[in-house]
Amino acid sequence: MSTAMVEVRSVHKSFGSLEVLRGVDLDVRAGEVTVVLGPSGSGKSTLLRTINHLEKVDSGWITVDGTLVGYRRSGDKLYELREREVLKQRTQIGFVFQNFNLFPHLTVLDNVIEAPVAALKRPRRDAVAAAEKLLARVGLSDKADAYPKQLSGGQQQRVAIARALALEPKLLLFDEPTSALDPELVGEVLDVIKDLAASGTTMIVVTHEIGFAREVADTVVFMDDGAIVEQGPPAEVLDAPRHERTRAFLSKVL
Ligand code: ADP
Ligand code: MG
After folding, report:
1. Which of 4, 17, 101, 116 has the most CB atoms around it within 10 Å of its CB?
2. Mind giving me the DSSP string for 77-141?
3. Is the CB of 177 under 6 A from ligand 1?
4. What atom in ligand 1 is closest to the CA of residue 176?
5. So what's the ipTM on this one?
């Protein structure tokens, strides 16, 4: 039995003449944390976005929990899923962005219940009860009625994490979740992510926080120029990198 939560196979993606993913292969096992490192422009965000089908791949394929992302197989043929089916697949994957992307006109509580009520048609009362638990989990029980602009960046990002968890996703994707934060607020967000990791949530985290990678990652992936240069446990990739490009990158961020 396979325990792969994510399989990425030979994925290529170009924007015009710019090839951004040049044949990416990646496996993420259920319950594991994968940290993706790499210079700006190396394709990290695009890789996350293809896993969520926010970007279509040009070739190759991706599965999440054994299901093809964005396509349905029939015999030897692949058929593109309709938008509605894509949206349904997407509800099983949580995405946390660098800039939080909260709805500014909704309270914290309403941000967290929006997707369960609108997308999953959960009864509002059940969604509120679940949201209250999630807000407690990220340490924001007292902010349920606040609006995003009344919160610090660290608090907004913790709301964004609660909102992602509200769909009970199989997989969580984080795209530089602490890059937009003042340094003193980074720790509170990383602590929430560490807590999720300890509870067995499968996630892929793009970050430049090497200490976090060393502590939390099962696998560290180093990307450069649209390809995975090396991957392995933190003790290998961070402390004994085999490739010159990995060493050069680490010497800049450490
Ligand atoms: P990273 O997250 O590692 O910084 P990205 O995946 O965001 O890298 O981007 C990789 C390359 O693809 C960059 O050169 C970027 O400018 C380009 N790119 C990303 N998205 C688009 C897009 N929608 N249209 C055109 N170029 C894009
Ligand atoms: Mg990026």
Report:
1. 116
2. EEEEPPHHHHHHHHTTEEEE-TT----TTS-HHHHHHHHHHHTS---HHHHHHHHHHHHHHTT-G
3. no
4. 2
5. 0.98
